[in-house]
Amino acid sequence: MKRYSKTHEWISLEGDVAVVGISDHAQDHLGDVVYVDLPEPGKKVKKGDVFCSIESVKAASDIFSPVSGEIIEVNGELDSAPETINSDAEGTGWIAKIKVSDPSEADALMDSEAYRKHCEEEG
Amino acid sequence: MPEYPFLPQTEGEIQEMLRTIGVDSVSDLFKDIPDKFEVDLAIPESEDEFSVLRDLKELSQRNTSLNELSVFRGGGIYKHFIPSAVQRIGCRGEFLTAYTPYQPEVSQGTLQMLFEFQTMICELTGMEVANSSMYDGASACAEAALMAVRINGKSRVIISESLHPEYISTVKSYCFGGNIEVELVKFDRETGQIDCGDLESKLSENVSALIVGYPNFLGVIEDLEAIRSIIGEKVLLITAANPIALGLLQAPGNLGADIVVGEGQSLGNPPSFGGPGFGFFASKEEHIRKMPGRIIGQTKDKEGRTGYVMVLQTREQHIRRSKATSNICSNQAFNVLLASIYMSLIGPKGLKDIARRCYDKAHYLANRIEKMDKLRPVFTGPFFNEFVVEFDGDLSMINSRLLEEQILGPLDLGKFREDMQNYGLICTTEANRNEEVEFFAGRLEEIE
Predict the structure, then answer these.
(1) Which residues in chain A (19-58) have CB-CB distances under 8 A to chain B?
(2) How many CB pairs under 8 A join A and B?
(3) pLDDT at B85
(4) DSSP H/E element including B359
């Protein structure tokens, strides 16, 4: 099941590996994505760390890790096709896989219903 | 307050403005500045234009114009011949007044010029991408060091000791705040090229890049391919090149350089007082997002016409703020304009001819000097248009005497290095006529 952060990232936890990306709502606000500055696999991140940045025609935005752990894989497809984030942010547009060190951190994230409300409140 | 024709406000208008904002006098506007900062600037009373011009002329006559001297001094800034058309075209108002625009796409002419400049720098250096210039050669070199660290995340930069000493000092300043270690690599006392053994001993896991001059500060041409094979593929190779020399030498990009920078003054800009010039900066395309500075791209508008835009601005300060790739958010547009006009006028063949003349005159002079008793060429490595000579006498005295005969003699390397007392760096360019070179050689032979 997908869970969302207040800063508009999503994770999908399978065992102790979290697939991480940005939400469909976030890609819609960014506009056309032109470049994704992917992290190096092997990098250790803490919850809330900037682990990636995404450039769109409007801005460059930092992406925060919703969980702590080690990056074990990145979506290399985004190098040549960054627009995948626009077409399928919550599927093939995933950014990285993180081996989480504390699975309970995921519990603090929102489910899709709570996230929908969060986006509405943000306006 | 006296009235000046170039200040448009009348006394009445000034009073009205003061009344509107509720202060009594202009000096009241500055009363928040603490008294202790109030100093007498000793600025003289105003004078009429006629007197000011006379004073300025008197001041300017205390200078010596390089145009009246035979110049045999280089060391980073060079006197080359500049065709009159360079200044004439460069000073057209459309070009002269156009600063790096903040709504850049309005200024298509400026962008096109910068795009052409980048293209020419790529061709000259053998690299894939270039930016639209940096402040000068030294800061371009320092920015290259920071870029290397951004690319591979390592924390140590090694520099050949034979790089221009002022470049070394600038790189150290830039690296200081970024916690980047800087270490120097010795040069070979016989050839003047980098000491390969010392280079090998300085390599380690955390070395990000090596910086070498091409030619180096001692005038000697480094063997870039040999250097590349010593440092391997993991260490980035940065070369600081003389752009005129590239008319004759193999482009660093074809010999394994990852980043090529340099001082561009030689291209159509006068030596002035050692500046302003500009730095050029070129790289492999794979690193473009780590490259500092402004980059111009060519595109098409919706009707299919060619147009120019500022690209990859998301790397820059006005968008990325503290996470920008670099704090340079400008360029040396006018100096670059002069260089672009110069390069367009002389073309690739012209540049090659000019470089050949620089080379030939220096080698002729070096041959003459080799036969002299009191002077000895110091290094055996190949050189372009500069070479180091050891003098028997006091070089600063010799230079004073040469100056009396309208000759600007060799750069005194003793000012830069303790171990190079009375070593002079001699330079020739195409702007030294053959008779001048002959006369200079004669004077070197005779002067005590």
Answers:
(1) 35, 37, 53, 55
(2) 12
(3) 97
(4) helix B333-370
Find chain B residues with C-beta within 8 A of A37's C-beta. 289
Looking from the CA of B129 toward its CB, the CA atoms found within 13 Å total 19
Token pair 């480094």 is found at B222
Q: Is the pLDDT of residue B325 over 90?
A: no
The token duo for B86 is 């360079």
Work out the percent of chain B whose per-residue pLDDT is above 90: 79
**A window 2-21, beta carbon within 8 A of B:** none
Would you list the domain boundaries of chain A?
2-122
pLDDT in tens, A27-66: 999 999 999 999 989 999 999 999 999 988 877 889 999 9
Beta-strand pair A9-14/A2-4: antiparallel
Q: Report how far residue B265's alpha carbon sits from residue B306's, in angstroms, rounded to the nearest whole number.
A: 30
User: CB contact, 8 Å: B299 with chain A?
Assistant: no
Residue B71 CB burial class (10 angstroms; 0-12, 13-18, ≥19) = buried
ipTM of the complex: 0.72
Give the whole-angstrom CA distance, residue A73 versus residue A41. 5
User: Tens digits of per-residue pLDDT, B359-406?
Assistant: 999 999 999 999 999 899 999 999 999 999 999 999 999 999 999 999
The answer to whether A60 contacts B289, with C-beta atoms less than 8 Å apart, is: no
Quick one: pLDDT at residue B242? 98
**Partner A contacted by B286 (CB < 8 A):** no
Q: Fold identical between B66-80+348-446 and B84-342?
A: no
Calculate mean pLDDT across residues B273-294: 94
Position of tokens 């040999």? B226
Question: What are the chain B neighbours of A53 within 8 Å (beta carbons)?
Answer: 323
In sequence order, which residues have a C-beta less than 8 Å from that of residue B71 and are 6 or more positions away?
B79, B408, B427, B429, B431, B432
Backbone angles phi, psi at A88, to 5 degrees: -155, 65
With a CB cutoff of 8 Å and minimum separation 6, the contacts of B325 are B147, B150, B289, B290, B291, B292, B315, B316
The residue extents of the domains of chain B are 66-80+348-446, 84-342
**A79 in B contact zone (CB under 8 Å):** no
Q: Residue B250's closest CA among B382, B341, B345?
A: B382
Q: Could you tell me which CATH class the domain A2-122 is placed in?
A: mainly beta
**C-alpha span between B434 and B430 (Å, rounded):** 9
The class of domain B84-342 in CATH terms is alpha beta
Mean pLDDT value across residues B115-140: 97
Distance from CA of A64 to the nearest CA of B (A): 15
Q: Which tokens is B255 given?
A: 């010999």
Tokens standing for residue B323: 């996470």
CATH class of B66-80+348-446: alpha beta
The C-alpha atoms of residue B422 and residue B111 are separated, in whole angstroms, by 47
Quick: pLDDT tens for B195-244: 999 999 999 999 999 999 999 999 999 999 999 999 999 999 999 999 99
For the entire predicted model, the pTM comes to 0.87
The answer to whether the Cβ–Cβ distance between B314 and A60 falls below 8 Å is yes
